[in-house]
Design goal:
The chain has about 450 residues and is α/β, with parallel strands linked by helices. The strands form five sheets. A six-stranded parallel sheet has the order 13-12-14-15-17-16, with helices on both faces.
Length: about 450
């Protein structure tokens, strides 16, 4: 739910008041997530009082607004951590509490005060997103979630500047298949974005499609905080192992990484090797401030000309072979899809060879009573469908007459002679003659 649009926020010094709830909107003993400005809060109604807490549980960011109040405590829906629904403090005196925000009850609803958003500080994710754009990545398909928010915000800023387009999808598999198709059709990489755990593994089917068809793709997956890697934290998956076979290049983004250089290597590898490059972004690393003067990377000086040509002699031999061919056929492979104008220009030159003089057509036996018993003349334009003997003229014109029976007639006569010397059987042997007239 978002703050109510019919009551715009009001500024008060360095804070802004947002109307989060209408009167009686939240029943006693219930909680609700509410978005005010760019922050999502957990609104609680307990013991006749309202409170506004940060919606992120300090233990891996579970959405407290989707939890419940049980036995007088607000319980996180992910791990069951408990907090006071009004103060945000945990029981037992621990210090891992939840931040709270000022609340006012007014005649038209419940208002929450939020500090004005500080100017954006450049992060390592910004540097990496700028590097992606410099490498020509213009489209990102993905799903935003709790473990990729820092990277998603960097991509949002690039989209706001008109440098790329982000497409939100309903399943991560759709994002990876879209990237695979884009790579096959254009030869350029697109990027797909997912959260950690199941969101990342949902990418795998589409990435295997890109792997098998050698389409360049840059996959970017969120990951749990590096502090909880290993003990089996919520949605923790060994993504290096999970992507080990499908990605021809895979690296985690760490605090001490050369962040622009990682994107340089990912994009270069995807383009040159025509495959999947994979970057793993732990949650807290995405929001680290970039070093002063950090510059994005790019392809300058990193890619050579990829067009290749065969030796001149091989080209001359192919041209000579085409010139001698009578029925040339051009089989265009997938690798020539970006050079179709040259292929189409070649096609007319090969058709000239196809118009070269050919061997005279073979004549067909046209006997006066051939096959179906109807008369046929030597000049008849068609032969009997039952007599398919073809005579190829190989020398001077040869004429066969009734006195010089054709091979077809001789074979039938031999068959009749053989059948007359055997005892009679139930099988009948045709004795219809098939003599040939003069044939050239």
């Amino acid at each position: 739910m978002t703050g109510h649009a019919d009551s715009p926020p009001t500024a008060d010094g360095n804070v802004t008041w947002y109307r989060a709830l209408t009167p009686d909107e939240l029943p006693e003993g219930r909680v609700k997530p509410v978005t005010c400005g760019v922050r999502t809060l957990c609104l609680t109604h307990f013991d006749g009082r309202y409170a506004a807490l940060d919606n992120k549980c300090p233990h891996q960011g579970g959405p407290l607004g989707e939890g419940s109040i049980e036995n007088g405590l607000l319980r996180c829906p992910w791990h069951g951590w408990d907090f006071d629904p009004l103060t945000g403090k945990p029981p037992g005196g621990f210090d891992d509490g939840v931040a709270t925000f000022p609340v006012e009850i007014r005649d038209d609803g419940v208002y929450v005060a939020l500090a004005d958003e500080a100017p954006h500080a450049r992060t390592v994710s910004d540097v990496m997103a700028e590097t992606l754009v410099n490498w020509g990545v213009r489209h990102v398909f993905g799903m935003v979630g709790h473990s990729n928010l820092g990277l998603a915000d960097a991509l949002r800023l690039q989209e706001a500047q008109g440098k790329l387009t982000y497409y939100g999808i309903r399943h991560e598999g759709a994002a990876s298949f879209a990237c695979s198709a884009y790579g096959k059709l254009t030869g350029r990489p697109a990027a797909c974005l997912s959260i950690a755990g199941p969101g990342a593994t949902n990418l795998l089917t589409g990435l295997w499609d890109a792997n098998v068809d050698r389409a360049p793709v840059v996959a970017m997956t969120g990951q749990v905080d590096t502090q909880v890697l290993g003990p089996g934290a919520f949605q923790e998956v060994d993504l290096m192992a999970a992507f080990g076979k499908v990605a021809q290049w895979s690296q985690p983004v760490l605090h001490t990484s050369k962040h622009a250089e990682l994107v340089n290597l990912a994009c270069k590898s995807a383009i040159l090797n025509r495959g999947v490059s994979h970057l793993i972004f732990p949650d807290e690393v995405q929001k680290l401030p970039a070093k002063a003067g950090a510059r994005p990377g790019g392809p300058a000086g990193r890619l050579t000309e990829r067009a290749i040509a065969p030796p001149r002699k091989a080209v001359d031999d192919a041209v000579a072979l085409l010139a001698r061919s009578r029925r040339p056929v051009i089989i265009v492979g997938h690798g020539a899809r970006f050079d179709m104008p040259a292929v189409l220009e070649l096609a007319p030159s090969t058709s000239r060879a196809a118009r070269a003089p050919r061997r005279a057509p073979a004549a067909t036996c046209r006997g006066p009573r051939c096959g179906d018993g109807s008369p046929r003349s030597a000049a008849s334009p068609r032969a009997s469908p039952r007599c398919r003997r073809r005579v190829f003229p190989t020398g001077p014109t040869r004429t066969t007459t009734a006195a010089s029976p054709s091979r077809c007639a001789r074979r039938r006569a031999a068959s009749r002679s053989a059948s007359s010397s055997r005892p009679s059987t139930s099988r009948r042997t045709s004795t219809r003659p098939c003599a040939s007239a003069s044939t050239t």
